[in-house]
Design a protein that fits this description.
Radius of gyration of chain B: 27 Å
Largest interface: A-B, 58 and 52 residues
Distance between the termini of chain B: 60 Å
Order of helices and strands of chain A: EEEHHHHEHHHHEHHH
Shape of chain B: elongated
Helix content of chain A: 40-55%
Largest sheet of chain B: none
Strand content of chain B: under 5%
Shape of chain A: elongated
Largest sheet of chain A: 5 strands, antiparallel
Strand order of the largest sheet of chain A: 1-2-3-5-4
Distance between the termini of chain A: 36 Å
Oligomer: heterodimer
Order of helices and strands of chain B: HHHHHHHHHHHHHHH
Number of domains of chain A: 2
Structural class of chain B: mainly alpha
Number of helices of chain B: 15
Number of strands of chain A: 5
Structural class of chain A: alpha+beta
Number of domains of chain B: 2
Number of helices of chain A: 11
């Protein structure tokens, strides 16, 4: 198996490349895919409605009503079966709903999908829409998705594909703290790299309120202060931010 | 920037050779940079950005050539009869599952009034009687024909699809659907024949029955094959084995789809029309022979596709061979 789900509980899949490079992709969960499918459904309904209107006008004008309704039924058939395949082939694995949610269908080794995968996974889409019982809450697809670590539905199983989230990541501008709180810190901070990563994630979390941030920081800040031989900090989150800022200082790289 | 250019147009073909060389060099150095960022923990968003770049570059560089990958519907269809012949065992089982209960149900419903009611509800039977008993060919025009064709496409594809897709349940779903559909169809025909409109319905069904029934049998056979690929895996994982059979299944299903389209076209237009019964029977027999010839003889000179050759070189065999004393 080429991709292994990363060890911590996360939806990230690590993909090995021939360069022995392991890059990580985030797999889309059932909820995100459900939203994308709903958007696709609305797009299809809109297409159907638009064409049906045109057909209705034409058939009313020329009194070819039966052929019109036959054509409309064929259109429903095509929208059911071919809509996804056409979009996936044109855009390299994205239907309009997926485009909206920044999702993409790729093969399990991270490579783009071919027509074989597209045909197979959409052939079994109707199987994923089946209900196991008459009063079931969810069709088969989301149930299978929820049970699989890579969030694959039946169509993905047969075709060997996964749906990944494409996050356009930008490098954030370096933040500066003023006045420089790191003056009190010793030159070399004996902090392990995993701790540094945790510090960075903590500092960059924007959703917390200040009180909550302080509350969390107060759990670990005394321990760091003790290790560094510093007095217990009054502003715990500020202390952690200063630690991290010092670690980012290129002039005083840590071992 | 180079990635953007190649992503916008048709892949790496958009880049001139010097750009290709630059892209490959940059990708190698990107690999080194990404590893260093990870090791030195230089920042989570920097790592994410580089990850993103790396995955895009990986996609672009290793996307694989277009040669042999282009989709040709004609190839798929031409490979369909050989694929079916390779899986003839499943086809035979599917035929037995459809026609067996069909014959039993038909004969039983013909001889015994209550048998039909035991299988189907009286409402459904009445509907069938009305639909076929009172149909008058002269009242249909191109409008009804068009509408019915669309309806038949939608309806028949649904039935055939159910016979195929439920085969994922180790083939049991396909068995179930074919047996029940066969039984129902047999009972309907037997019952209606008993009611006295036998010649009418048989002439109605004559022309499209070959295409439609064969398509359902093919779908069921593909479903059985799908289910069996989950059972006997030749040393691979179940899913891996299923995936390797995917193209073969796709060929058969496409063939069934084409047959269903033909059936719907005939069922909507020619079957209910007012052409004489003898003509319908004659054409019906011709179509049955044609279907048989297609399945038996078409595509004999096609080379065996590569995925089938890979299938035959099963990993389990090598292990068994090596372990023999």
């Amino acid at each position: 198996m080429v991709g292994r789900v990363s060890a911590p509980i996360d939806t990230v899949l690590g993909i090995d490349t021939p360069e022995h490079l392991l890059f990580r992709v985030r797999i889309a969960g059932p909820v995100r895919r459900l939203f994308a499918w709903t958007i696709d459904l609305m797009v299809r309904i809109f297409i159907f409605w638009a064409i049906a209107m045109v057909v209705g006008i034409i058939s009313a004008a020329t009194s070819l009503t039966g052929i019109g309704s036959g054509f409309v039924l064929l259109l429903v058939f095509a929208l059911d079966w071919f809509y996804f395949v056409v979009f996936e082939l044109i855009t390299g694995g994205r239907s309009p709903g997926k485009m909206w949610l920044k999702l993409r269908v790729v093969r399990e080794n991270g490579l783009p999908i071919t027509w074989r995968e597209s045909a197979l996974r959409n052939l079994l889409r109707a199987a994923d829409l089946m209900l196991l019982a008459a009063n079931a809450v969810l069709p088969l697809g989301p149930i299978v998705m929820a049970l699989d670590p890579k969030f694959r539905r039946l169509g993905d199983f047969v075709a060997g594909t996964i749906v990944v989230v494409e996050e356009p990541a930008k490098v954030q501008v370096q933040e500066t703290l003023a006045p420089d709180p790191t003056v009190d810190l010793p030159a070399g901070l004996p902090i392990h790299r995993d701790d540094l990563e945790a510090l960075e994630l903590f500092v960059h979390r924007a959703q917390m309120s200040d009180a909550r941030r302080e509350e969390l920081a107060r759990i670990v800040a005394p321990e760091y202060a003790r290790r560094l031989g510093l007095p217990e900090p009054k502003n715990a989150s500020g202390f952690l931010a200063a630690l991290w800022a010092r670690s980012q200082d290129p002039k005083r790289r840590m071992i | 920037m180079l990635l953007g250019k190649s992503e916008r147009s048709a892949g790496t073909k958009a880049l001139v050779p010097t750009e290709m060389r630059d892209l490959a060099e940059l990708y190698r150095s990107l690999a080194g940079d990404l590893m260093r960022v990870r090791r030195d923990k230089l920042g989570a968003d920097l790592e994410r950005y580089l990850d993103n770049l790396a995955s895009r570059a990986h996609n672009t560089l290793y996307a694989g050539s277009q040669v042999g990958n282009r989709f040709r519907a004609w190839d798929l269809l031409l490979d369909f009869p050989p694929a079916l012949r390779r899986a003839w065992v499943f086809f035979a089982i599917a035929m037995a599952c459809l026609y067996g209960p069909g014959l039993i149900g038909g004969v039983a419903a013909y001889n015994d009034e209550s048998y039909a009611l035991a299988v189907m509800s009286s409402d459904d039977l009445e509907k069938m009687e009305k639909m076929h008993g009172n149909s008058d060919p002269s009242q249909r025009d191109v409008n009804t024909d068009g509408a019915m064709t669309g309806f038949y496409v939608y309806n028949n594809v649904g039935i055939a699809f159910r016979c195929f897709a439920t085969g994922l349940a180790f083939g049991l779903g396909s068995l179930f659907y074919m047996i029940t559909n066969g039984l129902m169809m047999g009972v309907i025909f037997g019952h209606l024949a008993r009611m006295g409109i036998g010649p009418k319905i048989f002439s109605f069904a004559a022309m499209h029955s070959s295409w439609e029934l064969t398509a359902i049998v093919i779908s069921g056979s593909a479903g059985l094959q799908m289910g069996y690929s989950l059972v006997k895996t030749y040393g691979r994982t179940r899913l891996g084995n299923l995936r390797m059979h995917g193209l073969e299944l796709l060929r058969q299903v496409s063939g069934a789809a084409v047959f269903l389209f033909i059936a719907a076209g005939i069922e909507g237009n020619a079957s209910p029309s007012g052409i004489p019964r003898e003509a319908k029977y004659a054409l019906g027999i011709t179509f049955w022979i044609l279907v048989f010839l297609i399945l038996a003889l078409a595509g004999k000179r096609r080379p065996i596709p590569t995925d089938v050759l890979e299938l035959r070189a099963a990993p389990g065999d090598a292990i068994a061979r090596d372990s023999r004393p």
